[in-house]
């Protein structure tokens, strides 16, 4: 990993916070394992490579651990569509110390999901799943009581919801019914057309963000840079934060959960933007 590559990644990270940090290279040579299965959220493994680099192949950009090419858990060649994403993934691998903590490597995991497609879904199915999520969106579902939480939801969520409706010229609304609001078909069709402009890779990242925030509205607000990662996460946890203010919390557990949610959400948003790039990072920019 060259210094120029790391400088380029810093520019990419600036929109989403410091979710990746370049690690120092160690000088040990060990054999590469071709098919890494790190689906377990708690799995760790001893670092077995010395250098991390990227190279361009016929199918895109590849990640090299020493002289061996990285592969997905499904055995496919790990190939990403552009140089920017390759740099980000390579930095994740380079940042690992003596132990590989796969559960922190969110960009690598998202790439594996896009490449292996374990659920065997296509773009249309992913878009339909996102639209279904809109019907139970966190921002759209409101409580009747207590009064303090009712006002908090109105004051904090309504501005984002109104921005979303104005941005896409749609009607979404909110409801305190357990069934949530009834989303007009015209709104669904507008979002269906918009999401169809995303690549399969970008939809993979967007779906990941939606599942973290439990909200299409907050996810799109963040992807469109109307909300920061910190704002989107706090808004997604509005009820939890309200309860904590009244009843207290286990401080270390709360801080850990918040940190983890921010990291996953930031990684998902960064993944969407990196996979939406229609150009290759220019070498001269990397050398600045």
Automatic annotation (TrEMBL):
GO CC terms, sorted: mitochondrial inner membrane
Signal sequence range: none
InterPro entries, sorted: ATP12_ATP_synth-F1-assembly (IPR011419), ATP12_ATP_synth-F1-assembly_N (IPR042272), ATP12_ortho_dom_sf (IPR023335)
Cellular location(s): Mitochondrion inner membrane
Keyword annotations from UniProtKB, A to Z: Chaperone, Membrane, Mitochondrion, Mitochondrion inner membrane, Transit peptide
Primary location group: mitochondrion
Keyword Mitochondrion: yes
Biological processes annotated in GO: mitochondrial proton-transporting ATP synthase complex assembly
Bilayer disposition of the protein: Peripheral membrane protein
Source superkingdom: Eukaryota
Keyword Aminoacyl-tRNA synthetase: no
Sequence similarity: Belongs to the ATP12 family.
Oligomer and partners: Interacts with ATP5F1B; involved in the assembly of the F1 component of the mitochondrial ATP synthase (ATPase). Interacts with FMC1.
Stated role: Plays a role in the assembly of the F1 component of the mitochondrial ATP synthase (ATPase).
Official protein name in the record: ATP synthase mitochondrial F1 complex assembly factor 2
Gene source species: Liparis tanakae
Upper taxonomic lineage: Eukaryota, Metazoa, Chordata, Craniata, Vertebrata
